[in-house]
Input
Amino acid sequence: MAEFDNETQRLTLKVVFYGPALSGKTTNLTRLHDLLGTDLKGEMMVLETQNDRTLFFDLLPLGLRAPSGLLIKLKLFTVPGQTVHDSTRKAVLSRADGVVFVADSQTSQIANNAESFHNLELNATRLGLDFASLPMVVQFNKRDLQDIVPKAELEQLWSGAPWPLTFASALQGEGVIDSFAALLGQLYDHLDPDYALLLEHQLDRQGFCDGLLGPVVSDTPGN
Ligand SMILES: Nc1nc2c(ncn2[C@@H]2O[C@H](COP(=O)(O)OP(=O)(O)OP(=O)(O)O)[C@@H](O)[C@H]2O)c(=O)[nH]1
Ligand SMILES: [Mg+2]
Output
């Protein structure tokens, strides 16, 4: 849940990259760190790992100054995907304003994706987050691999769901910005009624997204 400090005119938001073990959450964050041209971009913090597996979380802080002077701080977190770290996952998800669910496109990972999505819904409910209205994007990552579920099949499977589907190869830096941009648009729509971003802070949807993305370095390989 967004934190607003009236005295310092600061709005702090939290976005969580959730998903099964090894789906590419940390890689998404690393690529965002490399590709985003945001003015207010902090260093990426990798808190603790064991053989490159997240044990606690990764963090990438971003920021944007609205025309009114309001400072919007966005903290991007990843959860540890391994099943055993559920209490940490729940703690990281706490008070999230938005989620990027990073699924693994490989056919071998269908059950793990489903289990992790169910775990997200369960933890969100336990934490009192309104899962139905939570801004969210579902990203199918690892599109560069061979044995993956076809795009048309995934689109059909998810056609009844309210969340946008995106396709990515985080390893190659493809689709990572698109997924994040889709989340930012939803986040703005969710926050504007409560924080009068347009009326009081002269910040429209485009300005919010452009400000947090910055001049993107490149989202396509080879450029
Ligand atoms: N081929 C391919 N490999 C990827 C892609 N994204 C990530 N990987 C690889 O998948 C492995 C796991 O990536 P991470 O980003 O560490 O995965 P994670 O979701 O953070 O994993 P946990 O921290 O254990 O939950 C690494 O070897 C990555 O290089 C992708 O788009 N394509
Ligand atoms: Mg990780």
Observations:
- The chain has one domain: 3-213.
- The chain has a mean pLDDT of 94.
- The chain has six helices and eleven strands.
- The pocket of guanosine-5'-triphosphate (ligand 1) is lined by residues 19, 21-27, 52-54, 78, 80-82, 141-142, 144-145, 169-171 (CB under 6 Å).
